[in-house]
Amino acid sequence: MNTKLLFLAMIAFLMAFQACEKDEEEDNDSTETVQDSYFNIEGAQFQSGAMPSESGGPEIANLSGNDNVLAGGGNPVSIETSGDASEVIIGVEGADGYFTYPVSSMKSVEDLVLIYLLFTQEIEGTFTIVFALVDVDGNVGTYQSIEVQTVEAGTGQFQVNLSWDQPNDMDLHLIEPNGEEIYYSNSLSDNGGFLDIDSNAGCSIDGTNSENITYGDTAIVEAGTYTVIVDRWSNCNVTGTTNFSVTATLNGELVTGNNPYYGSWAPDYTNDQYVEVMTIDINSSMMKNYRSVLQFDYGKFEKKRNLSPQKTQ
Protein backbone atom coordinates (compact mmCIF):
# COMPACT_ATOMS: atom_id res chain seq x y z
CA MET A 1 0.00 0.00 0.00
CA ASN A 2 1.48 3.38 -1.00
CA THR A 3 1.56 6.40 1.29
CA LYS A 4 -1.44 8.07 -0.35
CA LEU A 5 -3.69 5.02 0.06
CA LEU A 6 -2.57 4.59 3.67
CA PHE A 7 -3.40 8.23 4.38
CA LEU A 8 -6.88 7.88 2.84
CA ALA A 9 -7.52 4.71 4.83
CA MET A 10 -6.58 6.46 8.07
CA ILE A 11 -8.94 9.35 7.28
CA ALA A 12 -11.80 6.93 6.56
CA PHE A 13 -11.14 5.11 9.85
CA LEU A 14 -11.14 8.35 11.86
CA MET A 15 -14.38 9.52 10.23
CA ALA A 16 -16.09 6.21 11.00
CA PHE A 17 -14.84 6.33 14.61
CA GLN A 18 -16.14 9.88 15.10
CA ALA A 19 -19.53 8.91 13.61
CA CYS A 20 -19.83 6.03 16.07
CA GLU A 21 -18.96 8.34 18.97
CA LYS A 22 -21.58 10.84 17.80
CA ASP A 23 -24.26 8.13 17.52
CA GLU A 24 -23.40 6.91 21.03
CA GLU A 25 -23.64 10.45 22.43
CA GLU A 26 -27.02 10.97 20.73
CA ASP A 27 -28.28 7.66 22.14
CA ASN A 28 -27.16 8.71 25.63
CA ASP A 29 -28.79 12.12 25.27
CA SER A 30 -32.11 10.55 24.21
CA THR A 31 -32.27 8.17 27.17
CA GLU A 32 -35.29 8.91 29.36
CA THR A 33 -34.63 9.13 33.06
CA VAL A 34 -37.26 8.25 35.63
CA GLN A 35 -36.80 11.60 37.40
CA ASP A 36 -37.10 13.80 34.30
CA SER A 37 -39.70 11.89 32.30
CA TYR A 38 -41.93 10.08 34.80
CA PHE A 39 -42.10 11.04 38.48
CA ASN A 40 -40.36 12.34 41.56
CA ILE A 41 -40.56 11.21 45.19
CA GLU A 42 -40.01 13.62 48.06
CA GLY A 43 -37.16 12.52 50.32
CA ALA A 44 -35.92 9.86 47.90
CA GLN A 45 -32.42 9.57 46.45
CA PHE A 46 -32.13 9.33 42.66
CA GLN A 47 -29.53 6.92 41.31
CA SER A 48 -28.42 6.88 37.66
CA GLY A 49 -27.91 3.65 35.73
CA ALA A 50 -29.73 0.34 35.70
CA MET A 51 -31.64 -1.01 38.68
CA PRO A 52 -29.67 -3.62 40.67
CA SER A 53 -30.38 -7.30 40.11
CA GLU A 54 -32.37 -9.43 42.52
CA SER A 55 -30.10 -11.04 45.11
CA GLY A 56 -32.25 -12.76 47.72
CA GLY A 57 -33.37 -9.69 49.64
CA PRO A 58 -36.65 -9.14 51.55
CA GLU A 59 -39.91 -9.68 49.70
CA ILE A 60 -42.89 -7.38 49.16
CA ALA A 61 -45.88 -9.04 50.84
CA ASN A 62 -48.44 -6.80 49.14
CA LEU A 63 -48.29 -3.93 46.65
CA SER A 64 -51.19 -1.66 45.70
CA GLY A 65 -51.51 1.59 43.79
CA ASN A 66 -53.63 3.20 41.10
CA ASP A 67 -53.26 1.84 37.58
CA ASN A 68 -54.79 5.02 36.10
CA VAL A 69 -52.69 8.17 36.54
CA LEU A 70 -52.71 11.80 35.39
CA ALA A 71 -49.90 13.99 34.12
CA GLY A 72 -49.09 16.39 36.94
CA GLY A 73 -50.94 14.18 39.43
CA GLY A 74 -49.95 11.71 42.11
CA ASN A 75 -50.23 8.06 43.06
CA PRO A 76 -50.23 6.88 46.70
CA VAL A 77 -48.61 3.43 46.62
CA SER A 78 -48.93 1.08 49.62
CA ILE A 79 -46.24 -1.52 50.28
CA GLU A 80 -46.53 -4.22 52.89
CA THR A 81 -43.01 -5.32 53.79
CA SER A 82 -41.64 -8.62 55.00
CA GLY A 83 -38.18 -9.27 56.37
CA ASP A 84 -35.65 -6.63 57.38
CA ALA A 85 -36.21 -4.06 54.66
CA SER A 86 -34.14 -0.89 54.96
CA GLU A 87 -35.15 0.85 51.73
CA VAL A 88 -37.28 0.54 48.63
CA ILE A 89 -36.15 0.72 45.01
CA ILE A 90 -38.61 2.41 42.64
CA GLY A 91 -38.08 2.63 38.88
CA VAL A 92 -39.70 2.36 35.46
CA GLU A 93 -39.13 -0.46 33.00
CA GLY A 94 -37.00 0.74 30.09
CA ALA A 95 -36.05 4.08 31.69
CA ASP A 96 -32.67 5.08 33.08
CA GLY A 97 -32.18 5.48 36.81
CA TYR A 98 -34.22 4.66 39.89
CA PHE A 99 -35.09 6.00 43.33
CA THR A 100 -34.10 4.60 46.70
CA TYR A 101 -36.18 5.59 49.68
CA PRO A 102 -35.49 4.65 53.33
CA VAL A 103 -38.34 2.66 54.84
CA SER A 104 -38.04 4.65 58.07
CA SER A 105 -38.65 7.90 56.16
CA MET A 106 -41.94 6.83 54.64
CA LYS A 107 -45.34 8.02 55.76
CA SER A 108 -47.01 5.12 57.58
CA VAL A 109 -50.74 4.73 58.21
CA GLU A 110 -52.11 1.61 59.95
CA ASP A 111 -48.77 -0.21 59.50
CA LEU A 112 -48.85 0.29 55.73
CA VAL A 113 -45.80 1.89 54.18
CA LEU A 114 -46.80 4.65 51.73
CA ILE A 115 -44.88 6.15 48.85
CA TYR A 116 -46.37 9.17 47.08
CA LEU A 117 -45.31 9.30 43.43
CA LEU A 118 -45.53 12.82 41.94
CA PHE A 119 -45.82 12.57 38.17
CA THR A 120 -44.34 15.03 35.71
CA GLN A 121 -46.64 16.88 33.33
CA GLU A 122 -44.98 15.05 30.41
CA ILE A 123 -46.07 11.46 31.08
CA GLU A 124 -48.20 9.74 28.45
CA GLY A 125 -49.32 6.30 27.35
CA THR A 126 -48.76 3.12 29.32
CA PHE A 127 -45.67 2.33 31.38
CA THR A 128 -44.66 -0.07 34.14
CA ILE A 129 -43.47 1.05 37.58
CA VAL A 130 -41.33 -1.49 39.45
CA PHE A 131 -40.60 -1.85 43.17
CA ALA A 132 -38.22 -3.97 45.25
CA LEU A 133 -37.09 -4.07 48.88
CA VAL A 134 -33.43 -3.92 49.96
CA ASP A 135 -31.94 -5.01 53.30
CA VAL A 136 -29.08 -3.39 55.24
CA ASP A 137 -26.54 -5.60 53.43
CA GLY A 138 -27.72 -4.45 50.01
CA ASN A 139 -29.56 -7.65 49.08
CA VAL A 140 -32.39 -6.94 46.65
CA GLY A 141 -35.70 -8.83 46.77
CA THR A 142 -38.01 -9.81 43.93
CA TYR A 143 -39.26 -6.93 41.78
CA GLN A 144 -43.00 -6.37 41.66
CA SER A 145 -44.75 -3.99 39.29
CA ILE A 146 -47.80 -1.84 38.60
CA GLU A 147 -48.67 -1.15 34.96
CA VAL A 148 -50.25 2.28 34.69
CA GLN A 149 -52.22 4.02 31.98
CA THR A 150 -52.14 7.80 31.60
CA VAL A 151 -55.63 9.32 31.64
CA GLU A 152 -55.93 12.34 29.35
CA ALA A 153 -56.23 15.50 31.44
CA GLY A 154 -55.25 19.15 31.22
CA THR A 155 -52.07 20.60 32.67
CA GLY A 156 -51.88 24.14 31.27
CA GLN A 157 -50.54 27.25 32.98
CA PHE A 158 -51.94 26.32 36.37
CA GLN A 159 -52.97 22.86 37.54
CA VAL A 160 -54.36 21.57 40.84
CA ASN A 161 -54.69 17.81 41.25
CA LEU A 162 -56.18 15.50 43.88
CA SER A 163 -55.27 11.78 43.75
CA TRP A 164 -56.30 9.05 46.18
CA ASP A 165 -56.12 5.28 46.57
CA GLN A 166 -59.65 3.97 47.29
CA PRO A 167 -62.82 3.49 45.17
CA ASN A 168 -64.77 6.27 46.88
CA ASP A 169 -65.95 9.77 46.03
CA MET A 170 -63.45 12.50 46.87
CA ASP A 171 -64.07 16.03 45.60
CA LEU A 172 -61.62 18.79 44.71
CA HIS A 173 -62.67 22.43 45.18
CA LEU A 174 -60.70 25.52 44.17
CA ILE A 175 -61.78 29.00 45.24
CA GLU A 176 -60.38 31.74 43.01
CA PRO A 177 -59.28 35.16 44.32
CA ASN A 178 -62.55 36.65 43.03
CA GLY A 179 -64.54 34.20 45.18
CA GLU A 180 -65.76 31.89 42.41
CA GLU A 181 -65.55 28.22 43.39
CA ILE A 182 -64.68 25.49 40.89
CA TYR A 183 -66.09 22.07 41.79
CA TYR A 184 -68.48 19.41 40.42
CA SER A 185 -71.49 21.77 40.29
CA ASN A 186 -69.51 24.65 38.76
CA SER A 187 -66.91 22.94 36.61
CA LEU A 188 -65.89 25.97 34.49
CA SER A 189 -65.14 29.38 36.02
CA ASP A 190 -65.47 32.72 34.25
CA ASN A 191 -61.66 32.88 34.19
CA GLY A 192 -61.47 29.54 32.38
CA GLY A 193 -60.42 27.28 35.24
CA PHE A 194 -61.90 23.88 34.42
CA LEU A 195 -62.58 20.73 36.47
CA ASP A 196 -61.85 18.35 33.58
CA ILE A 197 -61.66 15.13 35.63
CA ASP A 198 -64.40 14.35 38.18
CA SER A 199 -63.84 10.76 39.31
CA ASN A 200 -66.17 8.29 41.06
CA ALA A 201 -68.99 10.86 41.12
CA GLY A 202 -71.92 9.76 43.24
CA CYS A 203 -70.13 6.42 43.87
CA SER A 204 -70.26 5.57 40.14
CA ILE A 205 -66.75 4.13 40.33
CA ASP A 206 -64.58 4.70 37.25
CA GLY A 207 -61.24 3.66 38.76
CA THR A 208 -59.42 6.92 38.01
CA ASN A 209 -59.32 8.06 41.66
CA SER A 210 -58.25 11.56 40.70
CA GLU A 211 -59.76 15.02 40.19
CA ASN A 212 -58.10 17.74 38.19
CA ILE A 213 -58.53 21.49 37.71
CA THR A 214 -56.62 23.10 34.87
CA TYR A 215 -56.16 26.58 33.43
CA GLY A 216 -55.35 26.25 29.74
CA ASP A 217 -53.23 28.61 27.68
CA THR A 218 -56.16 30.97 26.99
CA ALA A 219 -57.51 30.97 30.55
CA ILE A 220 -56.93 33.77 33.04
CA VAL A 221 -54.80 32.96 36.08
CA GLU A 222 -55.93 35.82 38.27
CA ALA A 223 -53.46 37.30 40.75
CA GLY A 224 -54.35 36.71 44.39
CA THR A 225 -54.97 33.88 46.84
CA TYR A 226 -56.41 30.53 45.73
CA THR A 227 -57.87 28.16 48.34
CA VAL A 228 -57.79 24.39 47.78
CA ILE A 229 -60.42 22.29 49.57
CA VAL A 230 -60.82 18.50 49.68
CA ASP A 231 -64.11 16.82 50.54
CA ARG A 232 -64.71 13.10 50.96
CA TRP A 233 -68.25 13.36 49.68
CA SER A 234 -68.98 9.67 50.25
CA ASN A 235 -66.89 6.71 51.40
CA CYS A 236 -68.92 4.41 49.10
CA ASN A 237 -68.71 1.53 51.62
CA VAL A 238 -64.91 1.37 51.53
CA THR A 239 -63.53 -0.37 54.63
CA GLY A 240 -59.91 0.81 54.47
CA THR A 241 -58.17 4.13 55.07
CA THR A 242 -58.14 6.58 52.16
CA ASN A 243 -54.73 8.14 51.47
CA PHE A 244 -54.51 11.15 49.19
CA SER A 245 -52.19 13.81 47.80
CA VAL A 246 -52.83 17.30 46.43
CA THR A 247 -50.39 19.08 44.11
CA ALA A 248 -50.43 22.58 42.63
CA THR A 249 -48.29 23.35 39.57
CA LEU A 250 -47.74 26.78 37.99
CA ASN A 251 -45.87 27.10 34.69
CA GLY A 252 -44.56 23.55 35.03
CA GLU A 253 -43.18 23.96 38.57
CA LEU A 254 -44.64 23.01 41.94
CA VAL A 255 -45.85 26.11 43.75
CA THR A 256 -43.91 26.72 46.97
CA GLY A 257 -45.61 26.34 50.34
CA ASN A 258 -47.57 23.43 51.81
CA ASN A 259 -47.34 21.65 48.47
CA PRO A 260 -47.68 18.76 47.88
CA TYR A 261 -50.17 18.06 50.64
CA TYR A 262 -50.54 14.49 51.97
CA GLY A 263 -53.48 13.30 54.02
CA SER A 264 -55.62 10.33 55.00
CA TRP A 265 -59.17 9.62 56.12
CA ALA A 266 -60.31 6.71 58.26
CA PRO A 267 -63.39 4.80 57.05
CA ASP A 268 -65.54 6.16 59.90
CA TYR A 269 -64.74 9.79 59.04
CA THR A 270 -67.96 11.79 58.56
CA ASN A 271 -68.90 12.14 54.90
CA ASP A 272 -69.15 15.49 53.14
CA GLN A 273 -66.77 17.38 55.43
CA TYR A 274 -64.73 20.16 53.80
CA VAL A 275 -61.03 20.41 54.68
CA GLU A 276 -58.88 23.33 53.52
CA VAL A 277 -55.56 21.75 52.53
CA MET A 278 -53.63 24.73 51.13
CA THR A 279 -53.73 28.33 50.02
CA ILE A 280 -51.74 29.48 47.00
CA ASP A 281 -50.63 33.09 46.56
CA ILE A 282 -50.03 34.04 42.94
CA ASN A 283 -48.88 37.42 41.71
CA SER A 284 -48.59 38.70 38.16
CA SER A 285 -44.79 38.28 38.04
CA MET A 286 -45.20 34.50 38.54
CA MET A 287 -47.30 34.08 35.40
CA LYS A 288 -45.92 33.85 31.87
CA ASN A 289 -49.19 34.83 30.17
CA TYR A 290 -50.69 37.08 32.84
CA ARG A 291 -53.50 39.41 31.88
CA SER A 292 -55.60 41.48 34.25
CA VAL A 293 -59.13 40.23 34.80
CA LEU A 294 -60.27 43.74 33.82
CA GLN A 295 -58.94 43.03 30.31
CA PHE A 296 -60.72 39.70 30.03
CA ASP A 297 -63.34 39.19 27.36
CA TYR A 298 -66.06 37.39 29.30
CA GLY A 299 -67.74 36.25 26.09
CA LYS A 300 -64.78 34.03 25.26
CA PHE A 301 -65.82 31.13 27.50
CA GLU A 302 -69.16 29.39 27.58
CA LYS A 303 -70.14 27.73 30.84
CA LYS A 304 -70.27 23.98 30.31
CA ARG A 305 -72.86 21.79 31.95
CA ASN A 306 -71.36 19.40 34.49
CA LEU A 307 -71.72 15.90 33.06
CA SER A 308 -71.17 14.01 36.32
CA PRO A 309 -74.06 11.96 37.74
CA GLN A 310 -76.37 13.89 40.05
CA LYS A 311 -75.11 13.43 43.59
CA THR A 312 -77.63 12.26 46.15
CA GLN A 313 -76.82 11.63 49.78
Describe the structure.
Keywords: Signal. Residues 1-21 form the signal peptide. The model is unreliable at 22-29 and 289-309 (pLDDT under 50). Helix content is 10%, strand content 40%. The chain has 313 residues and is mainly β. The strands form four sheets. A six-stranded mixed sheet has the order 2-7-6-10-11-4, with no helix packed on it. The protein has two helices and 21 strands. The longest helix is centred in the N-terminal third of the chain and has 28 residues, at 3-30. The protein folds into two domains: 36-150, Sandwich (Immunoglobulin-like); 153-295, Lipoxygenase-1 (Sandwich). It starts with a helix and ends in a 31-residue tail after the last strand.
Proportion of residues in extended strands: 35-45%
Q: Give the class from helix and strand content and strand pairing.
A: mainly beta
- Main sheet overview: 6 strands, mixed
Instruction: Estimate percent helicity.
Output: 10-25%
* End-to-end C-alpha gap: 92 Å
